[in-house]
Amino acid sequence: MAPTPAPPQPREVSSPQQRRRRKDVTLTVVTIAVVVVICAAAGFAAWAMANSWWTETDPAPSADQQLDDGQSRFDRAGVDFFTRQGVATVHLDGDTAATDLGLDPDGERPIEPLVPIELNVAGSTGTFSFGGVDDFALATAAGRVTRVDVEPAASGSWRAITAELRNRGAAWGWSEDEIAALESELGDASRSAPGEAHTAALPTVTVDGIDVEAIVTMDADGGAVTLRYVLSR
User: Fold this and answer.
1) SS3 for 198?
2) What pTM does this model have?
3) C-alpha angle 153/115/85, rounded to 5°?
4) Which residues contact 55 (CB under 8 A, 6 or more apart)?
């Protein structure tokens, strides 16, 4: 005769209070684990920052941050470095390969430092310096940098722009009559076609072997005015 199997044990049913306690314990464990992970990540980030070149008083650039001749590189590592230093330098009249600068052989690259910097553009014998630059752009062709497009700190205010152009014009060769004509052109265009954007430019001048153009744009409502310098070879 086959043995009789043991009767199944009754399934234990948890009370609502027990289920709540288990849920609370699980949530507590998960919360603690998340906090530990976050604290560990923050601690590692703080350690890494404290031991990185960002905290050095005068860090020496590595090969992927700056060239031996002082030119900046414009890929991520280079932008991080010259943002930290507060100065970017490019030789517009040189023969440095675009790829050595972290750029494509042909194309345009907008550059946006994390904070305003000083931008130095070297010509054949001198340097064009622009302070407080929030953004600029570099154009390349045939493997060389051919153009630098920069918005100076004076951009945004018509009074500051005209003062900037008069100061630069004295050294670069723009006459008072040419600057006054630009003002009149924009003023006339704004009055004759309100609600439209208008652009005017000063004549291109050649300074230290570099062609320099100043372009002023007034937006459609006349509230914002921008100045951009285009330096090319």
Assistant:
1) strand
2) 0.73
3) 105
4) 49
